[in-house]
Structure formats: C-alpha cells, structure tokens
Amino acid sequence: MLLVCRSEGNLLLQSLDHLDPVTLGAALAGTIFANGLHHFTTIDSTNTHALEQARQGAPSGSFYVADEQTAGRGRSDHQWHSSASQGLYLSVLFRPSAEKPLPTAELVWLPLMTGLAVHRAIAEVTALTPDLRWPNDILIESRKVAGILVEAQTESEFVSAAVIGVGINLHQPSFPPDLATPATSLDLETGRIVSRQELLVALLQALHRELSVFEFSNRETVLASIPHRIAAISTWVSGRRVDVHGPRMATGVTAGLDARGFLRLRTKDGVITITTGGLRAASS
Fold first, then answer.
1. What is the dihedral sign for C-alpha 152, 92, 33, 262?
2. What is the band of 15 on the pLDDT scale with cuts at 50, 70, 90?
3. Are 153 and 107 spatial neighbours (Cβ–Cβ below 8 Å)?
4. Taking the domain 238-281, which CATH number applies?
5. How far is the C-alpha of 117 from the C-alpha of 136, rounded, in Å?
6. What is the distance between the alpha carbons of residues 72 and 147, in angstroms, rounded to a whole number?
7. CB atoms within 10 A of CB 143
C-alpha cells in the first residue's frame, strides 16, 4: 500500500514521472545515451518504432521512451500491458562496432546483460533485491516486475542493429489475478512513488557499462563471466525445479548456464540444454 494520500500522490507522481531532457542529458553525459532521448506521450510499441528507426539509420544510443504503449510486446509475441503513466516503457538502439561485430549466435547475451543492468538499476533506486528468471524476467520474490525483449536486424550472419526493449512496472496499484506469473510494481513493493526519471537514468547508466565492457574489453573474458554474475543474483538458474514452456517442453532442475548463455536442465532422462522458452516453478 502506498504511503501517500490521493491528492498528494497525484502531484508527486506527475513530478517524479516528468522526463526533463536537460537533466537527463547531464546525467547521461559520457555515455552512449547522452542526448539520445525520443519521448512519446503514446505510441503503439517503442520496440516497433526503434526497429523502424534502425532501418532508417538512427545512431547507436538512441532511446525511445513512451508514457503509454497501445501495442506493447513481450517475448514470444506476448502482450506487455502498458497503461498510461504506470510504468517505464523503453527501447534502446545498439549498433555493434565494425571492429567487433556481433554474430547472430551471440545475440543471446544481450538480454542477459540487460537483465544484469535492470537488476542493478532497481536495486540502486529502490534498495529492493530483484531476482532474475532466465532468460528475460525480473521478479521481486515470486512476482514479475519487469521484462526484456531484444530484437535484431541481421546482415550476413551478423547483427547490424539490436533493439533492447525493457518494461518495468512502476505505479500500478493492482493486477489481474489470472496472470501466468503474479505481477507487482515498484510502488507496491517499496510503499512509495518511485521516480521514473531516476530509474531511467540508473538503467541507462548500468546498460552503458554493460555494453561498453562488451564492446571494448576482451569479449571472450566478458562472456565467460556472465553466467557466474547471473548465478549470483538469480535463484532460478541453478537448483530450481521448473517447467519449461516453449518449443521444447520439459520439467527438471536447473543446472546453471552453459558457455553460450543457454540453460542446462537436469531431467529424468539426463541433462538437456534449453535455448529458448519461459520458466515457471514446477507444478509437480
């Protein structure tokens, strides 16, 4: 329950949800996102728009924020509910450098790095302890608070542009009871109104760090560290009995990520590798 009355809460919400380009530019100075803001009151999907902008040559570091999405998308064509002024709806355009091209086979690392960045931003801004559910969900305990969708344009087996979409529940006071995963918002979890601009800055700063290390450090070393970093913040990637929903349905106990970022699952028939799909706590 929020700890502010309705009238005070509405005024505070308007203040904390306002995106100030000057303040954002100053906070993001020195990152790839400095002066990259494109803000929409309403849009069908920030990811759809960012992909179109990528085709038209928009630069790496452009980011697109909407107050409302009318056709927000999650992974596997799931709809992401994006009510007006209730969440942070963001898409980032990233272009790998020509010096260090990104093979399409390594695209799986982008949602994992984004998950690390979202986890860090939420923890910094709220002091909550998020959980990362492979491959693209952020939870508070068992309740989903954020999701990630990465889409790409490819040329000759390399990624020419990637759009990193993030949706974070901020101000929702309640959710439908029939969701596959119970949902929550940062306001519900903290008991206060969380600033969208503060969260946006923290997220873009964290994502800048992830992408910069990925681009300019030894990539083999960076990628080798990601499964260990995820294991340190996730209760889902090792020792959790789960049902896998996706092209390959399975039930078993998670056994960590492999060197490619895929999930290993120990089943009654042996250890298998899950390359795509969603996880749920096992029903039996």
1. negative
2. low
3. no
4. 2.30.30.100
5. 12
6. 11
7. 17
Counting residues of the chain whose pLDDT is more than 90, the rounded percentage is: 80
Task: Give the Cα separation of 189 and 184 in Å (integer).
Answer: 7
Q: Terminus-to-terminus CA distance in the chain, angstroms?
A: 33
C-alpha 118/C-alpha 35 separation (Å) is 21
The counts of H helices and E strands in the chain are 7, 13
Long-range contacts formed by 14-19: CB under 8 A, 24+ apart: 16/193, 16/194, 16/195, 16/196, 16/197, 16/198, 17/67, 17/85, 17/171, 17/195, 17/196, 17/197, 18/197, 19/65, 19/196, 19/197, 19/200
In this structure, of 29-38, 75-84, 198-207, 269-278, the range with the lowest mean pLDDT score is 75-84
Q: Which of 117, 114, 172 shows the shortest CA–CA distance to 145?
A: 172
Domain edges within the chain: 6-233, 238-281
CATH 3.30.930.10 fits 6-233, yes or no: yes
Q: Which is nearest to 166 in space by CA: 52, 74, 31, 229? A: 74
Tokens representing 273 are 């590798």
The CA distances from residue 113 to 78, 180, 281, in Å, are 21, 25, 23
Lay out the sheet containing 278-281: strands in order across: 270-274, 263-267, 250-257, 238-245, 278-281
